[in-house]
Amino acid sequence: MKPFEYVSANNVAQATQALGTERDKAKILAGGTDLLGEMKEYIVSPDRLVNIKTIPNLDKIETDKKSGALRLGALVTLARIFEDKSIAQRYPVLVQAIAVSAMPQIRNAATIGGNLCQRPRCWYYRDERTLCLRKGGDTCYAVAGENQYHAILGGGPCYIVHPSDPAPALVALGASVVITNGAKTREVPLEKFFVLPAQDPHRENILAQNEIITHVVVPPPAPGTRSAYIKERERDSYDWALASAAVVVTPGADKRTIASARVVLGGVAPIPWRAAQAERALVGQALSEQTIAKAAQAALAGAEPLEKNGYKVPLAQAVVRRALSLTMA
Ligand SMILES: Cc1cc2nc3c(=O)[nH]c(=O)nc-3n(C[C@H](O)[C@H](O)[C@H](O)COP(=O)(O)OP(=O)(O)OC[C@H]3O[C@@H](n4cnc5c(N)ncnc54)[C@H](O)[C@@H]3O)c2cc1C
After folding, report:
1. CA distances from 38 to 42, 177, 197, 232, 317 (A)
2. Which pLDDT score, from 0 to 100, does residue 329 have?
3. Whose C-alpha lies nearest to ligand 1, atom 27?
4. CB of 76 closer than 6 A to ligand 1?
5. Which of 140, 159, 240, 323 could be 245's S-S partner, Cβ–Cβ 3.0 to 4.6 Å?
6. To test ligand 1's pocket by mutation, which of 24, 27, 106 has the most ligand atoms within 8 angstroms of CB?
7. Max Cα separation, the chain?
8. Is the CB of residue 238 below 6 angstroms from any atom belonging to ligand 1?
9. Where are the beta strands (DSSP E) in 58-201?
10. pTM of this prediction?
11. What are phi and psi of 240, to 5 degrees?
């Protein structure tokens, strides 16, 4: 590992200042479960690590008294969210997604902020010797290579898939992230936080070099809302998603037809992928096996598999079907 300077920040202003403005010169260190692996494998080699775990109050789970929104500090670990009974009751989709994220040892250290900013698991990106498009080269080796785990939606010119499980759940819940550079703070819908490779193949999100996520805010669920997360992976002990689906469905006044629906796919696109056509197929309908089958079909409209990942289309349809079935009363 390349030698680096280590700064423990006492507050947000100190952290953002230590990050500076020169791209990738300094990196934020939270739980370190992703970043330290990247450094050991020479995927990233920052000159400075900015430890944010020393910033007080970023590890709090709170409910906003006025709005009823859940406010998660960026340093809250996945394990704490998983164990929180009130979160499980209000936002089952989030806790179900965390239950299948990594394993207990990782969840004890991994923070929610770090989870949303974790880097892709593409094996070309993670290979020290491969200068792929994402790392500043000019080729995405997945296009003509071993692309069985890659994107079938939203890909090109790079075909990574977003590795986070909590992210699709949080997008389905309409969550936002609070971002600051010390001087300016902005709240951005999580859906708008992620960046497609066509916009910029070198980054996964909109964060500037000197910005950090301080909080994740999840609005209160509307009465009667039901939600579920289903993930398929190769190894059940721990693994990233081959395909996953987060669904959040709210009934109308008649309690029978669906007033609003969010269907978000994981493991199939470079960002948590909102399946707008599936959502349209659900709204105004009663949740029946037929409606669910139509929505699952619609969720993969526009999918463009590469040579070796065509299996992801029926797999993703199946996880959408299963997740929606769980929301049937
Ligand atoms: C073996 C293994 C299996 C895994 N399986 C899964 C899985 O199935 N599902 C899943 O979702 N994840 C999985 N993960 C990923 C894991 O959840 C992430 O590594 C973890 O959540 C990252 O959090 P961290 O606090 O350790 O982040 P770090 O490693 O400290 O940081 C990760 C990245 O986020 C940046 N960062 C951290 N905090 C902030 C912040 N507040 N603001 C801005 N940028 C920030 C860092 O600079 C770095 O680039 C797995 C990881 C491992 C090692």
Report:
1. 6, 24, 20, 25, 33
2. 64
3. 114
4. no
5. 323
6. 106
7. 63
8. yes
9. 61-63, 70-73, 176-180, 185-189
10. 0.98
11. -80, 165
